[in-house]
Amino acid sequence: MGARLVDARAAGVAPIKLPRIVIPPVIFRGTYDEWNWEIQHQRCDDLRAQLHGVVISPSLAAHAALSQETVDTINGSAPDFPPLPRPASNVIVDDNTDIEERESELSEP
What we know:
Distance between the termini: 49 Å
Largest sheet: none
Helix content: 40-55%
Order of helices and strands: HHHHHH
Number of strands: 0
């Protein structure tokens, strides 16, 4: 790592504030590359939508010519399943407790 990066990390600079190198792809219009990248972006949008619980992704909405109001209504009606909070006994381990002893306590009924 460069010295400036090390200094920034030591100073507690948030990762989002650090400079980034962006290398855009070179795509020629009318070629297989253009079609391939379009499909790749659609699949990424669909996957991102699935991972975040979005029922209708932006690419699907555009393909189906749905109004933004309809998309918002359907996506807003989707159930939300946030992860359950972990019990404190599973998270905090006393520094003086032997790990194997702690694991045996957790596995006992």
